[in-house]
Amino acid sequence: MSKKLPVAITEEEFYKVIESTKNNKHKIAYLLGFASGLRISEILHLQKEDIDLLNKTILVKQGKGGKDRVVPLAKGFKSNMINQIPFNISVRALQIAFKKSCQKSGVLALKPTIHFHSLRHGFATQLVSHNVPIHHIRTLLGHSNISTTNVYLEANPKEALKSYENLF
Description:
The chain is mainly α. It has helices at 11-19, 24-35, 40-44, 91-105, 107-110, 117-129, 134-141, 146-155, 158-167; strands at residues 51-52, 57-60, 69-72.
């Protein structure tokens, strides 16, 4: 069985998508996916009281597998954005909105298989590229098994390539 690498959105691509998005609720949802690493279902189940503006954290209640976890609140999250929560939009509608934003921004042409979960992949890939320990990434993503998280090491082989480069 072949296992494909995750399609992650880069920081530059993320900003292009945000610039191409008119709807503020969509922008906030994308921000929470990319900069807090939330799954689409976690974003849509978010309540105001789950966001701790003082400590800059989000309590994810009953994430995948029924687990709770705490993640960082996206740095770009402004206190007035909390008024947009809960989102009151369906999973499918948000997925379609994201695809349209990717199309308008030109990102879809570069990455034809991009999807909403690519925001979360982008979060994980950013953490790997900034040398955050893999077990911390596992905790932030809420993975039960470290092997699920290890795919992000393979998706961003920068360190492995640098090691090779230093040898030859």
